[in-house]
Structures are given as C-alpha cells and as structure tokens.
Specification:
Length: 93
C-alpha cells in the first residue's frame, strides 16, 4: 500500500483525484479515470473542485479510506487456507 497523499488545509482532509488514484494503486495514463470509476461505484461524490479551468475534483479523504478498507479481499469469499495453500471447508480436517 502506498503512503497517504498530503492533506489540504481546507476543512477536512481533501484529496485530488490524482491523489486518490495514487492511494488506490492505479498507475498509467488511465489512473485518474480508473479512480473516478471506482469512486462512482462506491457512491462517493466530489466534495468540491480546485480553482481554475484545469482544477481537479476534491474528495474527502476519510470517505475514500473507509471505502477502500471495506473492500472485500481476494480469495474464496472468506475461506481460509490450510498449510500448503489449499482452501479448507467445513468437512476438511
């Protein structure tokens, strides 16, 4: 996981969409687009915008962190792994 982006001096901690993309681990030319789509799936709307024509949308960092931490993990829907990496079931000993 990457380090948290720097905070804004505005009320609450605000991250640009570029900072959100970096926090979520998106890279490349489409990183900000991927971050916007993920935020939309989570139902997180922009809090405000940076000034100027090229200003980026600003998102509340607490909302982004909470949604990211609530993401389901990889694997088989919570099944645990035994020694050697095999998934275990209730019938396995």
């Amino acid at each position: 996981m990457t380090a948290d982006p720097p905070s804004s001096p505005a009320s609450g901690e605000l991250w640009t969409v570029s900072a959100v993309a970096a926090y979520l681990g998106f890279t490349g030319e489409s990183a900000t687009g991927s971050a916007r789509r993920q935020l939309s799936r989570w139902g997180i709307a922009a809090h405000s915008r940076e000034p100027g024509r090229s200003g980026q949308s600003l998102y509340l960092a607490a909302q982004v962190r909470a949604a990211h931490e609530a993401r389901p993990g990889r694997g088989r829907h919570g099944a645990s792994r035994a020694e050697g990496g095999r998934f275990t079931t209730s019938t396995d000993d």
